[in-house]
Write a structure and sequence with these properties.
Low-confidence stretches: 1-8
Shape: elongated
Structural class: alpha+beta
Helix content: 10-25%
Distance between the termini: 29 Å
Strand order of the largest sheet: 7-4-9-8
Number of helices: 2
Radius of gyration: 19 Å
Number of strands: 10
Order of helices and strands: EEEEEEEHEEEH
Strand content: 35-45%
Length: 185
């Protein structure tokens, strides 16, 4: 878990040199904020919330999607994405599964979270990725939509965490597969 930035990481606000409130030059206030001495505005770079779904069908296969865009374009991922403003994690999870796969979520169960760095527009965006176990209607009608290039069912016995491109998702898949082997579905 990161309590402060690693030496090779850029401060989350490094690309922002001027106060968005008054336009004056501002300075790093602490590990996660910048402060403007001119107007007193302080901005905190808190992590963005993101979700990912573990969906297993009746044949004990895990639903994975192939990423259509960077970061990690072409690698496997779990259905999910960023939580919108005024959305709960569960609401964001349900929306993202529908947008990427066309599947309607009927039940959402929170499992755990993992912090991550998501490279976007030349910046490392700190995220808090929340992982859910989801049940869906009609697992045979999955589609690849939105950010998903392809949707595929992988037998749980054949799931390889190294095939998943994002660090937090790879860690989560490893944790999930280990738990499944210990406590089968």
């Amino acid at each position: 878990m990161l309590s402060k930035p690693l030496d090779d990481q850029q401060h989350p606000l490094e690309k922002f040199s001027f106060c968005p409130n008054c336009g004056s030059k501002w300075t790093v206030n602490n590990f996660k904020s910048k402060h403007c001495d001119h107007c007193g505005f302080t901005y905190y770079a808190n992590p963005s919330s993101a979700t990912a779904a573990f969906i297993v069908n009746e044949r004990n296969e895990l639903l994975a999607v192939r990423r259509k865009k960077e970061p990690a374009k072409g690698t496997l991922d779990l259905p999910g994405g960023f939580v919108d403003m005024d959305e709960s994690g569960e609401e964001g999870m349900i929306r993202e599964v529908m947008e990427e796969t066309g599947l309607r979520v009927t039940h959402v169960h929170y499992l755990f979270s993992i912090p991550n760095l998501y490279r976007y527009s030349g910046m490392d965006i700190h995220t808090l990725d929340m992982f859910f176990r989801c049940s869906v209607e009609h697992t045979d009608s999955v589609l690849a939509m939105d950010d998903a290039e392809e949707a595929l069912w992988i037998p749980l016995s054949a799931v390889n965490p190294e095939d998943f491109g994002l660090r937090s998702v790879r860690q989560a898949v490893e944790r999930f597969v280990k738990k499944i082997k210990t406590f089968p579905i």
